[in-house]
Specification:
The structure is a homodimer. Chain A has twelve helices and eleven strands. With about 300 residues, chain A is α/β, with parallel strands linked by helices. In chain A, helix 1 crosses helix 3 and helix 1 crosses helix 4. The structure holds a DNA duplex (30 and 30 nucleotides).
DNA sequence: GATAATTATACAGTATCTGTATAAGTGGTG
DNA sequence: CACCACTTATACAGATACTGTATAATTATC
């Protein structure tokens, strides 16, 4: 039972004739006759009672007519859906991101994307940097907005810098150093640190440690919460100080004060990651939109971020 | 897009490999590759991202996988339904009949048929003889239980006698002739007749007229109701007498008395009509059941009819 | 770096399917 | 009653398409 066959069958049934069907299908009557008789043989039933003067469909034929009509409609529907998915009109887009880093611009971006591609179902998945890398690698994400990927992964993905953040210090409200408008890293040497847990963002963790080392001390890390918000709460509670990307000021910083560092400018880029080959149309469209909006995003992040 | 192609596509998608699919389908890997790449070309989309080490389905491919799976399931379903319809396991049976003539045995017959073929949907359609002939000819009925067909139609159908009825007289309750247990036709010569309308049963009408003519008179027909029940009501109301098949005593005869005729024995057969060729399996099964039950039916109709 | 496994391509052979020609059957018509 | 117009079925040749073999190219893995 092939779709080509079903099409000629439906034509014969609807036009009540082999010759008429052949004309409509731009073929020749014997070809139609053969297709139908082979279909009958395959199914083991008569589909039409034919004389030279009339072609009457059998009960089995009527059953097949109903089914075949549905199958053909579904084939047409499938073709449409597949093509739309191929062009990116239809589909899904799974965006993974670092919450605090994108909070200022992602909502507007997604809104714009959804307006342009209303048929695409967008999933927003907040994760840590480590989770993002793993999900991206496993194909559970289409794009990721996160920090630079580990070198082992980098060649499988295309990455674009979106904006660069920098490390700043967060201190408890009434902290001794809070009176300074600006601090050298070394000023923190004797204070206990709270750092985001290393598993969640190994690069950031190591970067902070190496900044401290460069300033001549090794940080005394007394806690490693599993979220940036928890880090800020710990700082706000007076448990310690932290060094973190400035963007986390987007979170609730009550009890904390933020102080820029006077002596380091290690950039912390936020990047867009997309599978190097094999990017779906919807994914490519989103990447294109991000690139289109880079100026706007950088303006936002330079001013308020 | 052919079903054969969809089958190999689904195999590739499920087994995540062209070679594996080829093994499962008992074909060879290049054939699979060609089918897929031609399918991609036809649809204008990539269905898989392939390397020599992995085959990953695209978004469009996932869409097609869903659709193709449904299409294949429906094809399988169609094959099953069509074959069952062909063997008579599944289908419908439209039975046309003369109400009064079959009332005594058709219900039991249909009940038995439905018990043997529970998947067949039986339609019971009461009609006049004229309507039955027309519906049978037009293919709106599968079988008909009615009087002999007009000669022009007879060769297109197979007919079996089920039982033979005879004409009897129906008189109003207090009619002068009602005292006789048995009447010659001629006794009715001076009485007005009520006859079932000729359009509904031309043969019966003509038969009654010719019986009267043979008895030496032409009936004075004062009314031609459109149902046998209406004829009986007219007779019961004292409007006239009628000659009709004995079986109509099955209807409500209040106000009427039935009297056999002493001088005529024209048989009025009830027949089963089935399209000569081109009979569906369900129809043939019903005809076979009727023939099997002929003895029982005749016993019923001889005794109580 | 060799191996084993994968997919893509080229080419030849086979199947299959189409189209032409023709036969056989049937209702309508003069 | 023969003829006509039209139908479907069959036979056969040709063209198309598809399959399978051989081979290349690529890439994890040992």
């Amino acid at each position: 039972m092939e779709i080509r066959t079903l099409k000629t069958f439906v034509a014969v049934a609807n036009l009540k004739g082999f010759s008429a069907a052949a004309r409509q299908l731009n073929m020749v009557q014997p070809a139609v006759s053969r297709q139908i008789s082979e279909l009958e043989e395959e199914l083991g039933v008569s589909l039409f009672w034919r004389s030279t003067r009339e072609v009457r469909i059998t009960a089995a034929g009527e059953t097949l007519l109903r089914e075949a009509t549905e199958i053909l409609a579904q084939e047409e529907r499938a073709r449409l859906l597949v093509q739309r998915t191929g062009t990116g009109e239809l589909g899904r887009l799974r965006i993974g991101f670092l919450g605090s880093a994108v909070q200022a611009f992602l909502p507007a971006l997604v809104r714009e994307f959804s307006a342009r591609f209303p048929q695409i179902q967008v999933s927003l998945l907040e994760m840590t940097a480590g989770e993002l890398a793993e999900a991206l690698m496993a194909g559970r994400l289409d794009v990721s907005l996160s920090r630079p990927l580990p070198p082992a992964m980098a060649d499988r993905f295309e990455s674009w810098d979106i904006y660069s953040d920098r490390l700043v210090a967060f201190l408890p409200d009434g902290h001794a150093l809070a009176s300074e408008p600006c601090l050298p890293v070394s000023a923190l040497s004797s204070h206990p640190f709270v750092l985001f847990q290393r598993d969640g963002a190994p690069d950031l963790f190591d970067q902070v440690v190496s900044v401290c080392n460069a300033a001549g001390f090794s940080p005394d890390i007394l806690a490693q919460p599993n979220s940036m918000q928890a880090v800020l709460i710990a700082v706000g509670s007076g448990l310690g100080v932290t060094l973190a990307p400035a963007c986390i000021a987007q979170l609730n910083t009550s009890g904390c004060v933020e102080r820029p560092l006077s002596d380091q400018t290690v950039p912390i880029p936020l990047q867009l990651h997309v599978r190097a080959d094999r990017a779906e149309a919807a994914t490519q469209a989103f990447a294109a939109l991000v690139k289109e909006e880079l100026g706007t995003i950088r303006k936002i992040m330079g001013a308020g971020g």
